[in-house]
Specification:
The chain has 352 residues and is α/β, with parallel strands linked by helices. The chain folds into two domains: 154 residues, Nucleotidyltransferase, domain 5; 147 residues, Hexokinase, domain 1 (3-Layer(aba) Sandwich), CATH 3.40.367. Helix content is 34%, strand content 24%. A six-stranded mixed sheet has the order 8-13-12-9-10-11. Strands 3-2-1-4-7 form a five-stranded mixed sheet, with helices on both faces. A two-stranded antiparallel ribbon has the order 5-6. Strand 9 and strand 10 form a beta hairpin.
Length: 352
Amino acid sequence: MKTHLSNKNKDTINLIADIGGTNIRIAQATTNPEADQSDSEATDIDSMGINISHIETYQCKQFTSLAEVLAHYIEVKALADTSINACFAIACPVDRDLISMTNLPWQFSQKELQQALKLNSLSFINDYTAIAMAIPLLSDNQKVKIGGGTSVAGKPISVCGPGTGLGVANLVSVNISGKSQWHCISGEGGHIDFAAVNETEQQVMNFIQGLKKRVSYEQLLSGYGLEQIHQALLFINQGKEITTVKDKLSARDITTNALNGTCEICQQTLTLFCNVLGSFAGNLALIMNSQGGVYIAGGIVPRFIDYLKSSDFRARFESKGRLAYITEQAPTYVITEEQPGLLGAAAFVLQK
């Protein structure tokens, strides 16, 4: 992770965290005033080098609350006598003062947390907002380009991430008081209706419709989506129905079997997954005219980047009829940075 920026006031600390259901990563962020300012089209945050330091990872189950783990970090790092500006990325809605975590019995008021920890400022952002905010700061070592297209500085950027679900966010450059900044537009794009583009996908859709009331893209582009595609293809190709949990392959098993060539149905599953992902990413590019690029995040795709390259991902991304010129010009990338949540939280608090 790149970085450097010393605070003008040494007593001011930018505290950041990436809060998950299992682990919480806490760190400190600074910027480098000597970072390259030569690109006149870059936004202000693009031209800052960001330094993330003092990273600590804690297991959430070892603490009774978010306040407890944050107070522990502040004590250990001797930050009690500093002015702290904080930004925390968290995988749940943040639009209300009361936050209830989905996968942890942690519930807290943002205002009360700020007061309890004596923070100068506190911002909570959704985990995909954090990932999106990290994108303009990624180096070539933190992403892998898939296919053609050329990124245009300052133009909209989209990101989607198959994982537990299908996260989606978009970035647009805005001018606030003469200063260029990135603004994240988040939403629930992963839940839009799935559209099959060939007979096999239509058959898979029909199979999933037998299980669910509605088929969204998340029903295919996620961990359980991979499992559902696999079950559908087993039924379509072999008439086999999975009736017990022990007979169901996990998403990781499906991916492993596809990559090592030991299971043809698993290979078909992963290929269909990559192709559908291409269509979905192309849809995002059309919605936002994402000439800044479309990025793939999440914990699934980075495990098989070469397989993605050899699939029809990019062909499906570009295959948009008379508007194909938009997607042909837009580049696509897979994010390989291991800590995009921390980097995005740093970008958010420093830009703010």
